[in-house]
Design a protein that fits this description.
Chain A: This is Methyltransferase domain-containing protein. The complex is a heterodimer. Chain A has twelve helices and seven strands. Chain A is of the alpha/beta class. The N and C termini of chain A lie far apart (54 Å). By secondary structure, chain B is an all-alpha fold. The chains are: A alpha/beta, B mainly alpha. Bound molecules: S-adenosylmethionine.
Chain lengths: 274, 85
């Protein structure tokens, strides 16, 4: 389409996802399955903050910064020196706009987390919130994080994980389920938490946290489903009925994959010797 | 009528085009990373497609996954040398 405007499209998609998932574009960590998804997704950010052990002035690299939601908390609450990177140009603009509106200081640049081009040992913290599953070369991401971390620095990461091996024949058998997930969320690859730990160890980091939080994230799907019902008409206006349908179908599939312990969610942190 | 090998090649190249991979990939290119670039789900989809079309496929019937397009096609018959004219 000649007048197709990717920025406008991204904007509609972002608004639709905000209605479905909340302003943070990530899962929730629920203490009570009935609590609002915004409370739970904020708690996931808080858990990452706890593991990151932040202090004012620390240089933080936010890899896969989305539209800058979590980054705004890091700066507003912990006064860190923040660089957010994402492969999405529109994401960079949106995050800059958010920071300007909130009168926060931070930099956002379009860079690839697996090959950042940033100097060695130039950050105290590397933060990767639910972005690693979109980077197929997982080892390159961890190698790059280890490279840019200064001595004594720390990597914190959380994401969807694979909890068991999925053989080729099983993948083939269940290909329609996985195709729905790909249509809803894009091409992704999930790895076990142990794979992150192995990459970290290979690149000179000492792993100190490796926690499975699948149970605590499981209520996310019901919360998103409730949002899809509540905001049905507005979301259909933004992205159309077919896309909403794919999103809703993906929720039952993910619940099944969580319940049969195929997929889940993990949080991980590692330290560079100081 | 096209040989099964040629028919399979056509099906595969049409599939590659549909999933935005290079439909003109050379026969000896690796199928996965650093080659044609099929991920595991796309490989599973190709496997099912070939079985639907031809009744069997080399991904689900062998112990090891084929590594190149040529190895996939070998499942459907040996390559015929182009005749020198
Ligand atoms: C699910 S969003 C999470 C965003 C944000 N961390 C949050 O929690 O709100 C995933 C992000 O990873 C980014 N991304 C995907 N591949 C990337 C890569 N290779 N390098 C850097 N960012 C990437 C996407 O553009 C998007 O911003």
């Amino acid at each position: 389409m000649a007048d197709y405007d990717p920025a406008a499209h991204y904007d509609r998609v972002t608004r639709a996802w905000a209605l479905l998932m909340g302003d943070d574009l990530h899962y929730g960590y629920f203490e009570d399955p009935a609590e609002p998804v915004a409370t739970a997704s904020d708690r996931l950010t808080s858990l990452m903050i706890e593991h990151a052990d932040l202090a004012p002035g620390l240089r933080v690299l936010d890899v896969g910064c989305g539209s800058g939601g979590p980054a705004s908390r890091l700066v507003a609450e912990h006064d860190v020196d923040l660089l957010g990177i994402t492969t999405s140009a529109v994401g960079v603009d949106t995050a800059r706009g958010r920071f300007a509106a909130l009168d926060l200081s931070g930099r956002f640049e379009q860079r690839d987390g697996t090959d950042t081009g940033l100097p060695d040992a130039s950050f105290d913290r590397v933060w990767v919130l639910e972005a690693s599953h979109l980077m197929p070369d997982r080892e390159a991401l961890i190698r790059e994080a280890a490279r840019v971390l200064a001595p004594g620095g720390r990597l914190v990461l959380c994401d969807i994980i694979r909890r068991r091996e999925i053989g080729f024949l099983e993948l083939r058998e269940r290909r329609e389920e996985f195709a729905v997930l790909r249509a809803a969320f894009g091409a992704a690859r999930m790895d076990p938490l142990s794979a992150y730990a192995e990459h970290a160890a290979r690149h000179g980091l000492t792993v100190d946290v490796e926690t499975d939080i699948s149970a605590e994230t499981r209520p996310t799907f019901a919360a998103w489903r409730a949002n899809a019902e509540r905001h049905h008409d507005a979301v259909v206006d933004l992205i159309g009925a077919d896309e909403l349908d794919v999103f809703v179908r993906s929720l039952a599939i993910l619940e099944g994959l969580w319940d049969d312990k195929t997929l889940g969610y993990g949080i991980f942190s590692a330290r560079r010797a100081g | 009528m096209a040989s099964p090998r040629i028919a399979a090649e056509n099906v595969i190249r049409e599939f590659l085009g549909r999933i935005k991979k290079d439909p003109a990939s050379p026969l000896d290119a690796p199928l996965y990373a650093d080659g044609v670039g099929l991920d595991s789900l796309e490989t599973a989809e190709l496997s099912a497609l070939l079985e639907d079309e031809f009744g069997s496929d080399p991904f689900s019937s062998a112990d090891e996954l084929p590594q190149t397009l040529a190895e996939v096609l070998d499942h459907y018959g040996a390559a015929v040398e182009a005749e020198a004219v």
